């Protein structure tokens, strides 16, 4: 449709119809066949109001969604189709690693490809919008949703956020490409959670956020902004408060920052029931006032609270809200529907045949396997890995993840969860004659659990399982211990104060160590865990996060050296939960360690180091790389100029490997305190033994900008340090001066 036709349509719609477009209902309000069931208690809607709504949440399936859509389009006075939305976070049916693991690939290319596959499968399943990417910067491993983010760094999150938008939507606005949501396989993305949701105080879920505007702008906004500039079609508000104002009613945040400063002109949706939650936050008297706050702030769609449907029309009739605001919101929604081509084809790409063809197809599985392998982070390896394929090396795989299909992470709803490859299934492709023993359950009966993670051992079975595991370890040359958090211990509502492995698994580890010191521990988790003891006991440790459908194959590939480990930490690993939040790009204090101040009067703790167990960017390979000193092409850079930094990287080990060369900058002195280091580039190089390669980075003034003492976004002349190395701890450095 032309814009003019959309305007004509808007002009013909009644106020009730317009409000309907601004309402999203949950799919469980409808019966199976897609028929409208009429009033429901939870949302207090009449059948007539239900038939006018504009969006549906939480259902997939070409057939199911087709039936629902058909019914809606038929009954709607202007035959306006529904927007069908769901959380397709790390894949629709072919499940990729969780986003935090995607962050560890440091690969925009792989992330884009995974999003493209997710979009193809999700649109085949009838969807129009996915509630992804989540671009909340995360620094607190206690928060259950760190798994949904790509990590702690603004630059990395921005690069990967843009990659996800390109993968989902098939185009880049920043590169001047036209929006092409109609195209088969493209889905509209939704940036969330705007804004600052990744910083809940104490890591407590739904907790409020306290942050300075400067840090908020400099660290937290860039990834949302980058994805908006890439052309992401939608944005979702966040549950948290910011400066004591819930985002969903924060006019400054939505109208000034998001729309004006960031130039976002797409559809803004509230998070789940977040409009009504402003009542419990204590800034709205009732649902009517909450609806008013949300519309004034610029929220276009009310996700499942009943505020808009009940009060928006009345607010307009009473003259409390200008109808113009409703018209603007509805126009944005109609435009998105039109961009998706829904007026011509309300089902978009939904097709049962396509589902069959694409879901977990060979090509998608291959990609999932490759990406999973690239996301694993090898933390330690004392000549344990790769494992030998020869029968002479006897290997026992022990632990509750040795043969476990629950490796998708939360927010994954594959049709058949059993389609995931276990470690056992993967390893058996590599070599025969190995032992596989469970050892213990993921969680003991008395351990922390949500919705059904607990299992029961049965009479006497617990001791027996442990004894069997110890016996298997005794008879092996090497033990691969497959341990991890339960899938339900993370995700939304999954905050924890104890971020260690379940204690029963630690007992297993300690018992195994008594009979066999050659331990390789493979850790499944959806957050950085406190792994100090695990890394002390084990000779090798590899993090595999929640690796998805092809997890077991990818793990076997890396363990046996068919794929080389190359993942890098996208979040710092704490030594102790007491250090959290811990992140590399912090500010220098006046009394850093080693500053010469009397012992006991320096920055940090008296009972623990301030350093993480492993820093951001860290990860080993099966080989070693040697770096030349950082070289700059000049020692002075003009504000309008650029500067080139380069290093030579050489593979000095016996195996091939892929190195992620990382560029960090430090602004030595600013009008406000600057971070000790900030990531400003990364580049992957694959090198054969003995081979070397040159890696260059161009440094531009835009990389040096920050919010100065006057809150202006500028660079300040002065001394800068350029670090290039393997991780954020690198000291390989050169200096330059920025001149006016
Ligand atoms: C979550 C969002 C999600 C929405 C819809 C909310 O609880 O915070 O991330 O997109 O539900 O499922
Ligand atoms: C402390 C102050 C104290 C001063 C003089 C500083 O180290 O922070 O509280 O008054 O020494 O003793």
Describe the structure.
There is one protein chain. With 740 residues, the chain is an alpha/beta fold. It has 3 domains: 3-354, TIM Barrel (Alpha-Beta Barrel); 370-569, Glycoside hydrolase family 3 C-terminal domain (Rossmann fold, 3-Layer(aba) Sandwich), CATH 3.40.50.1700; 625-739, Immunoglobulin-like (Sandwich), CATH 2.60.40. It is 29% helix and 17% strand. It is built from 20 helices and 27 strands. The strands form 7 sheets. A 6-stranded mixed beta sheet has the order 11-16-15-14-12-13. Strands 4-3-2-1-10 form a 5-stranded parallel beta sheet. A 5-stranded mixed beta sheet has the order 19-27-26-21-22. Strand 26 and strand 27 (733-739) form a beta hairpin. The chain is globular, with a radius of gyration of 26 Å. It starts with a helix and ends with a strand. 53% of the residues are buried. Bound molecules: beta-D-glucopyranose (2 copies). One beta-D-glucopyranose is lined by residues 57, 87, 131, 192, 271-272, 492.
Describe the SSE topology.
Elements: H1 3-12, H2 15-21, E1 23-26, H3 47-50, E2 55-57, H4 62-75, E3 83-86, H5 99-104, H6 108-124, E4 129-130, H7 154-169, E5 190-194, H8 213-229, E6 234-237, E7 241-242, E8 245-246, H9 251-261, E9 267-269, H10 277-281, H11 287-297, E10 302-303, H12 307-317, H13 323-339, H14 352-358, H15 362-375, E11 377-381, E12 395-398, H16 423-427, E13 435-437, H17 461-474, E14 478-484, H18 503-515, E15 519-524, H19 532-537, E16 540-543, H20 551-559, E17 625-627, E18 631-632, E19 636-638, E20 642-651, E21 657-667, E22 678-687, E23 692-700, E24 706-707, E25 713-714, E26 718-725, E27 733-739
Parallel strand pairs: 1-2, 1-10, 2-3, 3-4, 5-6, 6-9, 12-13, 12-14, 14-15, 15-16, 19-27
Antiparallel strand pairs: 7-8, 11-16, 17-20, 18-20, 20-23, 21-22, 21-26, 24-25, 26-27
Helix pairs in contact: 1-13, 2-12, 2-13, 6-7, 6-15, 7-8, 9-11, 11-12, 15-20, 17-18
One beta-D-glucopyranose binds next to loops.
